[in-house]
Backbone:
């Protein structure tokens, strides 16, 4: 399948991550590799912004960031993020 995020052919996801219109859009356009990249980005966003996922505002922020990360070139690390020293 052609992955919109990676802009190349890649292994597809095995199933939609959500049972919604967005889930269908992801399964048709986003590869397993790109989804893995999103999960790492999502963890960083949750941790850096101290999000509590039962709050509707936090879920709305994550949904917007997910769409931006997967379907545009506008995604960035959270403001103030400093990568860990290796």
Residues:
């Amino acid at each position: 399948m052609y992955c919109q995020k990676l802009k190349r052919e890649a292994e597809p996801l095995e199933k939609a991550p959500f049972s919604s219109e967005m889930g269908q859009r992801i399964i048709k356009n986003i590869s397993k590799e790109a989804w893995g990249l999103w999960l790492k980005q999502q963890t960083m966003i949750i941790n850096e912004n101290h999000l509590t996922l039962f709050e509707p505002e936090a879920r709305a922020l994550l949904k917007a960031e997910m769409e931006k990360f997967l379907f545009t070139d506008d995604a960035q690390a959270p403001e103030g993020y400093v990568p860990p020293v290796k």
User: Anything to note?
Assistant: The two ends are 35 Å apart (CA to CA). The chain is about 50% helix and 5% strand. The chain has a mean pLDDT of 90. Residues 2-8+19-71 form a domain with the YggX-like fold (CATH 1.10.3880).
